[in-house]
Write a structure and sequence with these properties.
This protein is mostly helical. The chain has 2 domains: about 1-140, no CATH class; about 165-230. The chain has 8 helices and no strands. Helix 2 (about 20-50) runs antiparallel to helix 3, helix 2 runs parallel beside helix 6 (about 105-125) and helix 4 runs antiparallel to helix 6. It is rod-shaped. The termini are far apart.
């Protein structure tokens, strides 16, 4: 009886200093990392939903697909319970015999089993997010997107043709209006040229009439002087005040 108690205490001390305890601490750290990843996972799903799949297929895929953090948490909790039962000495007889007889192999197996979730997480992280999108996006979605792009291209082409027709129509109207303006300007220039000719002729006539008036005035003055010399006309007497 005493020998069995000493063996049990020695085994518990060995468990506290064995690599399994360090593996347990590392597993708890991995569980914390998985919890953080589970908190960041909705943001990632939202990003994938907005970026690659506008019809909600990523949401349905992610809702039906089990979360990696949930699987790792369940595995970690199960392993923690197994580790607690091993550390306290509780459990069935086969576990006790395996601990007493082959503790090193069991610890190595448990360590390898606990490292597998981390490897799965790393492998999951190495996968591209496009893989999930390619799995959940059906071919009809790409067909709809392609058809939508073709419709948009056709709409833009028709719109461009309408704009070209409108521009051609406005260009023709502008050319016609410009031609009308040039014709009006030409007619106005011709009228101005004619008016200037009329003004020049009128000035010449006025100059000729002024010359004729001056000549008649000189003739009248000469005739009056001749008649005064012959005595036909009497010269008007000048007043003392200098007025005629």
């Amino acid at each position: 009886m005493l020998c069995e108690q000493l063996c049990t205490k020695h085994h518990e001390a060995y468990l506290l200093t064995s690599p399994w305890w360090r593996v347990r601490v590392s597993t708890e750290m991995y569980e914390g990392i998985d919890n953080l990843k589970s908190l960041l996972r909705p943001c990632r799903e939202d990003f994938l939903r907005r970026s690659f799949c506008g019809t909600g297929c990523v949401a349905s895929y992610c809702s039906t697909r089990p979360s990696t953090s949930t699987i790792n948490w369940e595995r970690g909790s199960q392993e923690s319970q197994d580790g607690d039962s091993r550390a306290t000495g509780r459990g069935n007889s086969s576990d006790v015999r395996s601990r007493r007889g082959g503790s090193t192999a069991a610890l190595l197996d448990s360590a390898g089993h606990r490292e597998s979730p981390l490897m799965e997480v790393e492998e999951e992280e190495r996968r591209s997010p496009h893989d999930h999108v390619d799995r959940c996006v059906p071919e009809s979605f790409f067909d709809r997107v392609t058809q939508g792009l073709r419709d948009d291209l056709e709409h833009e082409r028709n719109r461009r043709l309408q704009m070209v027709d409108t521009a051609s129509k406005h260009r023709a109207e502008f050319a016609f209006a410009q031609l009308e303006n040039e014709r009006s300007l030409t007619s106005l220039r011709d009228e101005l040229r004619v008016a200037r000719g009329i003004v020049d002729r009128s000035r010449a006539e006025i100059t000729a009439l002024q010359t004729l008036v001056d000549a008649h005035h000189r003739e009248h003055k000469a005739l009056c002087e001749m008649l005064e010399r012959k005595g036909v006309l009497h010269r008007k007497k000048q007043r003392t005040d200098g007025t005629a």
